[in-house]
Structure formats: structure tokens, C-alpha cells
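Entry for the shared binder. Reason: the reviewer on the internal report wants the predicted structure included alongside the sequence.
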Amino acid sequence: MIEKIPSVSFITRPEKDFVTITSDQIFKDKKIILFAVPGAFTPTCNDYHLPGYELEYDEFKNLGVNEIYCLSVNDPFVLKAWSKSLNIKNIKMLPDNNMNFSKAVDMLTDRSKSGMGTRSKRYSMFVDNKNIIKVFIDQDGKFEVSDARTMLNYLRSL
């Protein structure tokens, strides 16, 4: 696992226009939690992973986290629809549809057996000013350590 956030760009669509944001814009001079899911609307991601971080958002803010991002190898349209379907207000959606970030941090996995193709592993990371401080990586098919509670417990221990 690398120690610094790589320089990559993300193509988002917050409103009607595409907007490119860089990893520097997201991570520089901030404390960020980024958690990654294999796919929007998939059962564990939809029912537990994303809602868990949304539910604990205020507690993360109280612990000094500036922003929380949910990354998925999906396009901006899918992530916007997914966020809207769950009434997500605080978590920022980060489409990695070209897998540039996931490749750069060595977090790709082959989910072809379940019909999903190449996706991001399920993980969470705490980043301080582009320095990757802590990473929790779940094994494929598991949801045991990348959840909001595990990250909260880690941050409380600092």
C-alpha cells in the first residue's frame, strides 16, 4: 500500500455540467475519510456501508474530519442517483469510473464471477494532508473492517 495519495483526476457531475476535481483539491491540507465500495446499489454497499457513514457523519466531524467521500467504480450519473435514492446529505460521492485512483492505490479486484467485472476493493482510509495514515481493507465478499464504527474507534484511539 502506498503512503501518499496519488495525483489523479475525477470527473464528477454535481449539477448539469461535468466538473473535474483533482486529488489535491480533495485531500490537500484536510483530514479526509475515503471509503470505497465495489458498486452502487449493491446490497451491502446500499444497506450498510454508505448509510453507516452518513449516520455517523456528525461524530466524524466532531473528531476533526473535514470531509467524507464514498468512492466507487461507477459513473457520476449512477453515484448521483444512488446518493439521491438513500437521501444522502453529507457524504460526497466520488466516481472512479476510469479506475485511475483504484489502480494507483492498488485496490482493484476482479469481481467477474459475480458479473461485476473489475471493481474497487471494499476499504476505508484515513488521510491527513495527502498522507495515508490508516487503511482498513475487507476481503472480497466481506464487510468486517471498512465500516464507519471501525473507523470511528480508530480515530477515537488517536
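Summary line for the report: The chain has one domain: 9-156.
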